[in-house]
Specification:
Four copies of one chain form a homotetramer. The first copy, chain A, has one domain: L-fuculose-1-phosphate Aldolase. Chain A has six helices and eight strands, in the order ααβββαβαββαββα. At the A-B interface, α4 of A face α6 of B. Chains A, B, C, D: This is Methylthioribulose-1-phosphate dehydratase. Chains A, B, C, D: Pathway: Amino-acid biosynthesis; L-methionine biosynthesis via salvage pathway; L-methionine from S-methyl-5-thio-alpha-D-ribose 1-phosphate: step 2/6.
Chain lengths: 240, 240, 240, 240
């Protein structure tokens, strides 16, 4: 038994700063400083070939330690949203599985992502409100930031002439219940690199944590400048 | 005598980063970076079963050291606001007891809180001005952040369908004089997780420092987005 | 000669983090993070009984080292603005005396200050533009922050019922030429705790560096909230 | 061969924090915290007498290590934008040359700069939108910040009475294609200390990294305050 526990702990114990358990702790602290994950919400999960590393629910994201990380086998049969998944490791502390797990899983199964990030950035929330009727945030001609985003989140990068489009789905009382509408939106808009959730935040994914993170930065930048432009009366999409 | 002094110092001396005296120092520095406690105001106090740890008044909150912390026995008979309380330890330096002490005490006696935070966040102050007539800040449908707040600050978390309401009380020339009106508001609005003070800031509490801190983050986030929405002409409360 | 140089260096060499040469370096880096001293401008000087410590002109304020600090004897005969002062130590590097020196000196001679801070905070500059006609920034009823400011910068603290008033003087092509108008404003408004300079920034002083710093924080907070209120159409001064 | 590789690595290996390879890593991390280089874009390059140090393209700018730096000989025959340049060192990792290289080169050849910085600061982008018709950002009477900018980026500093003018050039699908229009603008406006790119960002240069950095800070400050003034209905240029 103690051997088995030691084996479980070994999954999140490493001196390599690039080990997923170390990265999640470091990146969540950095996201906290960006205002993306205050109040315990939001975070990042990382998938390797056969494992998913994920931070717990309801904890202070700037204070995560590698020992807090859950590890799940991948792939595994798609459970219904409210069913417990299979775990390779659960933290010994009384920590809860993240309610984002089914949403992160969408990114893995629908887009074969290696990492998925969820933020409550106020730029994202303001954009969902200012583009609520259109159900789609759109911006064009922002060189470099648009080119920093990949088609579908995992394809080639958008070109300068592309209009970036991020669908906005409705919010639900429970985060798990977003799973189906997020999946639908991902399938309906295969070019979308992220999904905005009304009055809530954004989900962004990538082939690995670096791509997920830099795409989240690009999208957040575009949401921020888009909100500023809209409030200043400037159009965010130009007709050629 | 020197033995007794050593015993007093032992109350705030620990190598454990989670000891209240160490936590208060660290958290106040972090609140300074968030803009919550500039100019010496604001802070956090922590209560254990039988002791209250509290930072001094009028000091730079990002430079507090454990040796600056006051320690009071808990419970103790409710003194009138301007009466000195009983202390287990006073810092040797010429430091003054925090004027927030009676307000923090409200959170302990009325809500059985284990920690209370006071900020001068500009989000809180702007909200008190923009909702001054209503004497109540209200926001709804902000998933996750509303669910990060507990009913009364110490109960179960609000549901997604709840409208968050934070009462706004009038300011007074002396902080101590807020004690009664804060207590009244806490009793009149038992579901409120914090009390806003007009042109001044906010008080938030929780069962322990983690809950007090994460609820303060959620409320500050909601105040910030609420102010942005109001200034952009968007309603913060939706009719179902 | 080398002995004399060593003696000069000894003036800025100390392992005590509270030595003025160490403090100036640390505080300027912290002011840089607050956006007060970007682009080499702004800074803090500290006066002891018989010495003034001052950072050089035109250097990156977040990269100051104690060896960069100038030391001047105090008091010394008031030179005309463009006359070289007497120095106890000049840095060996080819560094220029701060153009703020005559302004800082005003705070020493007119208010007997022990420290003076100059920032280019955008809150200060925006306030000078929005209150340009009145030549006076005014705000009332902001409890705690107003009470964190001292009458004249070195007297008792303002009361909650006081209206904070900060005079705005005109800008001049050369910073040294502000000396006389700043001095005049300090004499005309003996209760003012700082002097705003149109399209430029603010000077704030205090009995020591702690008081100068916390008063600068309180004033900057009040300038920031004042600008927000004005732009939102809210009055910053209430009639009782 | 391994000797030659060692020689190449020696170009970016130094314990001196002021070595260009160390500086670029440190400064990019600092620019990330300022919001200038999120999402892998932007950065700084440094030129010594005979070498140019430049960060790779498409990497997280806050995580650059000296071993990631490219080194090029200087001068070298001006290649057409899409032709590979000659390198003294390429990082062993699979990293791409920065698309900014031809733009940075403009600063070296047209202005004899020792360093050039490119940011995607939202202040710069908003200014290009609000001054889009004029194709020129203009601001006057902002003492200190205007005086912190050098005529042409490498001449004497502007005087207080000068109006700062920064040309805005059109964006292009590929960053390399900005080379000619940036060069033209630099020649047409020899007094300009930087070039804004519509919906994209700014290029700023200086005799060395310190001057490039402090001028970028001054320009970014002026762009930020200019945008705030314009949105508040205040003129940024005064008639004397």
């Amino acid at each position: 038994m103690s051997a088995s526990i030691d084996q479980e702990d070994a999954l999140v114990t490493s001196t390599d700063p690039l080990h997923p358990a170390n990265l999640i702790s470091e990146l969540c602290a950095s996201f906290y400083r960006l205002g993306w994950v205050t109040g315990t919400g939001g975070g990042i999960c990382i998938r390797t070939d056969d494992k998913v590393y994920i931070a717990p629910s309801g904890v202070q994201k700037e204070r995560i330690e590698p020992s807090h990380i859950f590890v799940l086998p991948y792939p595994q049969a798609e459970p219904s949203p409210h069913t417990d998944r299979i775990f390779l490791r659960r933290p010994k502390l009384n920590l809860k599985e993240s309610a984002c797990t089914p949403l992160f899983w969408n990114a893995f199964t629908v887009r074969n992502a290696g990492s998925c990030i969820h933020t409550h950035s106020q730029n994202a929330v303001m954009a969902t409100l200012l583009w609520e009727k259109e159900k789609m945030f759109k911006i064009s001609h922002q060189v470099k930031m648009i080119k920093g985003v990949r088609i579908g989140g995992n394809g080639p990068t958008l070109s300068y002439l592309d209009t970036l489009e991020v669908p906005i789905i409705n919010n639900t009382p429970n985060e798990e219940d977003l799973k189906d509408s997020m999946k639908e939106a991902m399938e309906q808009y295969p070019r979308a690199a992220g999904i905005l959730v009304l009055r809530h935040g954004i989900y962004v994914w990538g082939d690995d944590w670096q791509k997920a993170k830099t795409q989240t930065e690009c999208l957040d930048y575009l949401l921020e400048i888009g909100v500023k432009m809209k409030l200043a009366g400037l159009p965010t999409v130009l007709n050629e």
